[in-house]
Design brief:
The complex is a heterodimer of chains A (297) and B (304). By secondary structure, chain A is mainly α. Chain A contains twelve helices and two strands. Chain A has helices at 2-40, 49-54, 71-102, 105-118, 123-142, 150-174, 178-186, 191-202, 204-220, 223-228, 246-254, 262-296, and strands at residues 58-59, 67-68. In chain A, a hairpin with a 7-residue loop joins strand 1 (58-59) and strand 2 (67-68). The two termini of chain A are 41 Å apart. In chain B, the strands form three sheets. Chain B has a five-stranded mixed β-sheet. Chain B is globular and about 55 Å long. The mean pLDDT of chain B is 87. Chain B starts with a helix and ends with a helix. Chain B has eleven helices and 13 strands. In chain B, helix 3 (68-77) packs parallel to helix 4 (91-100) and helix 9 packs across helix 10 (277-285). By secondary structure, chain B is of the alpha/beta class. The chains are: A mainly alpha (297), B alpha/beta (304). The interface between A and B is large, with 37 and 39 residues.
Chain lengths: 297, 304
């Protein structure tokens, strides 16, 4: 009898422990959000929200006229991310399709871990690659004197987003029930037709989720873009312009800013805008993914 | 199925974090002397610290960069023992120090001729201070306007936490804003990388960075411009010791270190080494200039 009680107690203690672990994650997220919000809001005592979001001039330390406009940075961030996604998505989907449908299982066993290792390469190393390899190559290709521009950043981010896109797309392609492709092949469809008309549409929501998660990775990446985009504050007019993304700006300025000043709060406000952007992207990815899992059940 | 994958990733991340943080925690337990700030000074101070540590292995010193503003902020916040800075402490910073009870003592460590550099393919050899200002304000956008090739000027500079950034803004830009087209690099070395690779580039770095240590001459691929005070004055090179010492080179400056109040015995010993003949020899070897008599006297007074 007492043994039974002891066991029950142990059971509930373990349950509580894991419950607390689960709750902890939520609290950490909430804590970060509250901190971000409380540090960002004071910025708007001195800056008008509209000027902040639509101004193109960021001059927080100017001795002439102090301005806090982040539109150029938002556009730069979106520009670099779009380049990354446009490059990474077709390649990522291609690799995923190859791994799930074409490759011999032995090849897959080798290639898949390699793609996953790619995710573990430190961003500084990727950035270095951009400085010594892609930068000079792009400069030569486009006849510019330097390769520190949005395109360079986008290419590197594409490399960094690839593992996420490949991995999740491949999982969702593999998760398509084999009866689907068997049926298609039995009806006389070729493997290409089976892949493009049956498997990819069936796995579409997983693929879209992969795409969104890859994009979320690209928006938030800091070190790589900081190293290769040149960080000029001017409004970008093209892919070959030097740009400064929101993440780079925070990384550059947070180290030196005097605490508890408008400039300091404004950097947190940029962080908040960034948080809202990535949160939106991840949320959409999550909704799509859960829809897809529901349907599979 | 997704979790399987991420569990591996998370495990690696944890291992990574442990590897990064353990040495930091150990280091903090050992009461290391912290030196932080100017990126212009970081290489020099690192070498000084290394030489000092080979003689005094019992007093470990950690040297970090981040820019002059970062170093001074760290001194105000009490997170560093010595702040390196390549500009004077601003009145705003002095006010913050006053509020927090920080009483800075400043020592001149070396003299620097701020060097304006271009790629060796650039035919120009000299500029006036006004021209440097116009280039960095973005008023002059093409090399042709200065007698060079028809190429848009590609500006390289430092970030606003840099003492060098502030120094040039004050002296050449007359406190106006830098052009928003300046590519802001993380330190002197990165600017040099940029200028070496970019024919249309212009950049500014401490003189200690332009010399090739092996030959004592400016680095290959780089051209150090002569700078004149105005149209009428003669132009001088930052590598000309005499011109820097006498102030004929218009953008020469002292590089400083500051402590909070009278430094303790350990810090004093290190400062004495740096400011003494041994340290000053290293300063010269690294391409900067030793401090003159005036600074030597001031330093001695501040050490008491």
């Amino acid at each position: 009898m007492t043994k039974q009680k002891l066991r029950n107690l142990k059971e509930s203690a373990i349950r509580t422990f894991f419950f607390m672990n689960g709750v902890l994650v939520i609290f950490i997220l909430l804590g970060i959000f509250v901190l971000l919000l409380s540090s960002a809001v004071p910025a708007f005592r001195e800056i008008k929200l509209k000027e902040f979001l639509t101004g193109t001039s960021w001059e927080p330390t100017s001795l002439v006229k102090v301005e806090y406009g982040i539109l150029a940075m938002i556009v730069s961030t979106v520009l670099v991310t779009l380049v990354a996604v446009i490059i990474a998505f077709p390649i990522g989907l291609g690799v995923a399709a190859y791994l799930s449908d074409v490759a011999h299982w032995r090849v897959r066993e080798i290639v898949k871990p390699i793609v996953e290792i790619l995710a573990g390469i430190p961003s500084v190393v990727v950035g270095f690659l951009g400085i010594v390899l892609f930068g000079p190559a792009l400069a030569k290709l486009f006849g510019r004197t330097n390769g520190l521009n949005a395109l360079n950043g986008g290419i590197l981010l594409a490399i960094m987003a690839l593992p996420t896109i490949v991995s999740i797309s491949e999982d969702s392609l593999n998760a398509v029930p084999s009866v689907y492709s068997e049926a298609s092949l039995a009806l006389g469809g070729s493997r290409w037709q089976t892949l493009v008309r049956v498997k990819i549409p069936a796995a579409l929501s997983g693929i879209i989720a992969a795409f969104m998660l890859g994009m979320g990775r690209a928006i938030g990446e800091t070190m790589t873009v900081l190293m290769v985009t040149g960080n000029a504050r001017s409004f970008p007019h093209g892919l070959l312009d030097s740009v400064r993304t929101m993440t780079s700006n925070i990384a550059i300025e947070l180290g030196e800013v005097p605490y508890y000043t408008t400039h300091y709060y404004a950097l947190f406000a940029i962080g908040l805008v960034l948080f809202i952007m990535t949160f939106g992207v991840n949320l959409i990815a999550d909704v799509v993914l859960s829809k897809y899992q529901e349907r599979e059940r | 199925m997704l979790y399987e994958k991420y569990r591996k990733l998370i495990a690696w991340a944890q291992l990574g974090l442990a590897l990064v943080f353990t040495p930091i925690l150990i280091a903090q337990g050992r009461k290391m002397m912290q030196v932080k700030g100017s990126d212009t000074l970081i290489n020099l101070v690192q070498i000084l610290a290394e030489e000092y540590m080979t003689k005094n292995p019992k007093s470990p010193i950690a040297v970090l960069g981040g820019g002059s503003g970062t170093g001074i902020s760290a001194l105000i916040n009490g997170t560093t023992d010595i702040a390196d800075h390549s500009r004077e402490i601003s009145s705003k910073e002095l006010n913050q120090m006053w509020e927090r009870g920080v009483k800075p003592r400043t020592f001149a460590l070396a003299v620097d001729g701020l060097s304006i550099i271009v790629n060796e393919k650039n035919p120009l050899t000299k500029l006036t201070m006004d021209q440097v200002g116009a280039i960095y304000r973005g008023d002059v956008k093409n090399w042709r306007a200065l007698g060079g090739p028809a190429q848009p000027i590609s500006l390289y500079g430092r970030q606003s936490n840099s003492g060098t950034y502030a120094f040039l803004q004050e002296t050449a830009l007359k406190n106006k804003n830098y052009s928003s087209d300046v590519k802001e690099m993380n330190g002197n070395a990165q600017i040099i990388e940029g200028v070496l690779a970019d024919e249309a580039a212009i950049g500014y770095v401490g003189v200690g960075y332009v010399l090739d240590k092996a030959t004592g001459k400016p680095m290959k691929g780089l051209k150090v411009l002569l700078i004149a005070k105005d149209d009428k004055a003669e132009a001088y090179a930052p590598t000309d010791k005499d011109a820097v010492d006498t102030g004929k080179y218009p953008i020469s400056r002292a590089l400083y270190q500051s402590t909070n109040g009278k430094p303790n015995a350990d810090i004093t010993a290190f400062l004495q080494f740096e400011l003494g003949p041994e340290g000053q020899k290293i300063v010269e070897r690294e391409g900067f200039y030793p401090i003159g008599v005036k600074y030597v006297q001031e330093n001695a007074k501040n050490l008491k």
